[in-house]
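Appendix B. One record, verbatim.
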Amino acid sequence: MWLKPDEILLKNAFKLWVTEKDNEYFVLQRRRGYGEGGGGLTGLLVGTLDTVLDSTSKVAPYRILHHTPDSQVYWSVACGVTREEIFQHWEWLQQNIMRTLSVFDSSEDITSFVQGKIRGLIAEEGKTSLVLEDDPEKFREALLRFEKWFEIPTEEKLVTYYSCSYWKGKVPCQGWLYLSTNFLCFYSYFLGAEVKLVISWEEIWRLEKTSNVILTESIHVLAHGEDHYFSMLLHLNETFSIMEQLADYSIKRLFDKEAFEREPALSDPLQITKRGLEAHAKSQQFRTFFRLPKEENLLEVHEGFLWVPFSHFNTLGKICLSENYLCFASQDGSQCHIIIPMREVVNVEKPDSGSRALTVFVRGKKALRFSEVRDFQRLANTIRSRCGISASPQHSASPEVTRSHVPLRPFSKAVSTEALMTVFHPQDVENLDPKMLKEKMKEQSWDIHFSEYGRGTSMFFTRKTRDLIVRGVPESLRGELWMLFSGAVNDMATHPGYYTELVELSLGTSTLATDEIERDLHRSLPEHPAFQSDTGISALRRVLTAYAYRNPKIGYCQAMNILTSVLLLYAKEEEAFWLLVAVCERMLPDYFNRRIIGALVDQAVFEDLIRENLPQLVEHMTDLSFFSSVSLSWFLTLFISVLPIESAVNVVDCFFFDGIKSILQLGLAVLDYNMDALISCSDDAEAVTILNKFFDSVTNRDSPLPPTVQQALVSNNGKASHVGVDISELIREAYEKYGSIRSEEVESSRKRNKLYVIQTLEDTTKQNVIRVVSQDVRFNITQLDELYNLFKRQHFLSCYWTMKSPALLHHDPSLAYLEQYQLGFQQFSELFSLLEPWAFCTYKSNLSLWVFRLIDENQDGLINFKEFCCALDTLYSSSFTNKLKFLFKLHLPPGYCDTSLLKMVLVLYFVELSGRGRIDLQAYLKQWQNEILKKEETIKDLPRINQTQFIQFSKTLYNIFHGAPEEESLYRAVAHVTSLLLRMEEVGRRLQEPSSPSESEKAAGTSPAEDSSTEQGPVTPEKWSFSFEQVLASLLNEPTIVDFFDRPLNIQTKLGLARVAQLKLKADKGKDSKGN
């Protein structure tokens, strides 16, 4: 690697370098302790210094220095990990530089020329380099160390690196932590003791910041059941943040493909950088806080003051800009923020350059004044360019002039334009009962709030807004405020006509999702009059079907019908659709899929909060998994399934304003309220009964809904013994006791627990697969566990450096356990070559393809774990007859393939695999039925093997016996069997000669014309063949061969070697392909 020329005063300080080559202008040196001889004690000291110190000497054991005869100063110009690499640089200097230097008159000119040439080479390399870092030179050196120490394929993208201590037992090892796209690596070398650690991100169960008596602050990593601690990091928070993002990125890409596909910014694993991860994390926080669409990215952040008219003072905060939104959030504790869509901005003015202020005019005669903005000119220009406004300060065009509007598509007649509550329970204006009067007072409070803080998309969100939410939202404003708080109002405004189009496209379609929707339609709030009529049922059907059509990855999941029913009560049909989009895709990510990962993660977060806030309950119930199971419906339906509808809508009010934080707070409040009863209960069933009775007793005393709609009045008949609880008081208590829980802490806990939840699901999958496979093989559970880990890792190795891996494209967690992880031909051949017992099948050989085709029973171009294990079990543990039958079938179709057809077969496999679309469940059911009915194959069912196939069969036997202690006797035995079979075939052919021509023609399947033509030419190879019975009988007469195949084989040794060699084989293969 060429280095930026750096001055070195002593070319051989402390005799740490040995000169290998030199000439008039250059010196090639080797670091003492590397290469031949090892260097003794000096070598140990040098190795230790190289690891602890961050210097070029540590980077590589070889270097080239430039000097001139009349100077004592040396310049480092190149370094290398291997002799071959450094000698290539040396030869280049000899051929391209040495001849030129003779034309210069002075040493200064020579040095200047060499330095310029080396910098030019580095710049040329940088044009194609993927490294985009603040200090490219140091990063190049770190990348070289990374590749040298860990032998990882060159495609692996190093993201960043840090100096730190790794605790091995009670002893810290000072070294370097390397974070790449797919691996966490650590290296340390101290006085001859080398510590090397390589952990794949998808193997990590826990990643968290910890502290104890010995380690004041460290990063804890749990992987493979082992704890790893990293401390003494200069930038611990930054390091942890990058590690957290890389782990989350890996989990999404390899396990949670649905979530990953929603983030195109991180689609290419070869383009991940530290800067890119940091920008992605900031954009994610920005979108989450302001409830913005997933397409928005944080472009600029400015600090400044915003004039707040309702408080009559300037509040300090941050101004954030994305592609389509201008947002502001206060930093002075006032909890004030505002979201301004660019489509609403009419004009931007700068009063004077001295004040560093600007005024943003919004539709509705509203103006926002920002002051003390350092780069106010840039901010103003960015807003203008995003809104398409002229830079002229006199510009004051109307909204109609500043931008052209997309014509609204007329609503389909089938789409309802009214909220169902408006249709089935219109408010009686003249009704003056106490509940209606209280409802009117709520409406007046909100009218005052709108007059002070604004209304619609440009409303200020403050503490007062939250206070009003906690008291309860008026029935008439509920739909409007849900749209505003969730951000759905922006989605709907920027997609006019989208829902109507979806409804037209989706109606009449028949899929698994639509079948499930039809089944659940009448189970959605069946007590409510709106869903006892065709109006409500039809609206619910349209919304759910349209969403399933929009997002087939989710389609339809249970609980979506209950949530959508409540949305339709208070929002118009199109608004209910966009509210469902906001909930499923932003506010409750990964909740509504086959594995409900998001809900399981939030249950884990809930358990953590119980431990922190309810210690008395934890002392009594040490196993908190009970609360996870009982609270699942709370999270999935936002308490709608357990609370009466008139009370549940108040919870939904809080959810749309505060997100999942409000659900967690309410869950804690429910447990706190029932603390004494839960502590005194004797079993889980009693605890469930206590909670169910509590939820039945919750009422909404302020609800203006009639008795026909309210559920609590109906359900509480005969249950007056349980004291009723008002939902407003319960929510207020939740905010008072647990309102200190911060959204940032919840998000951090989500990330931490997501690793554990997904790994737990993966472990369950593994246990189920092993239980099924163990019934068909002789490997023990421990061996199957190790085989599964290797198989799964091989699957991931095919996915690390590309997004087009067939195995990754067809990975579907919703499939049967055995089908979730599968290997294509290349991945299978690499792993099989490491594990098969006789080293007869390298990953480059044709035999790999034949084995692959033989065990690929459904011919789909992918091998599952059961097929893989059954093949290995036959070779390791089966009888002599079964092993021989496997090898015999290997040389028959579909396994055997002529060498000339090899490339064609591979192409056909690739085309078949790449052409696979959505999973055909009927095809899988048919396949499973065939497997159940399949009869066991006997040796008489096997076809005969022809001459070409038998020759290849003999070659395979020679390959198997190669290197065995009794190799010569085995070779002789094979030769003897071959000659015996040929003599038997010759005798058989002679016995058939006297038969009549017609019989021989029938036996041969040829016509007389074909027979005569055959007699004239040479005898074709197809004229003779052997049955399996003949081959088996012949080989049974050779005790040496029988003893060889009957010899016990232990796969444990192979498993240990495969764990070490698996990644190295991938790296070596990558180097080979680059070399070719």
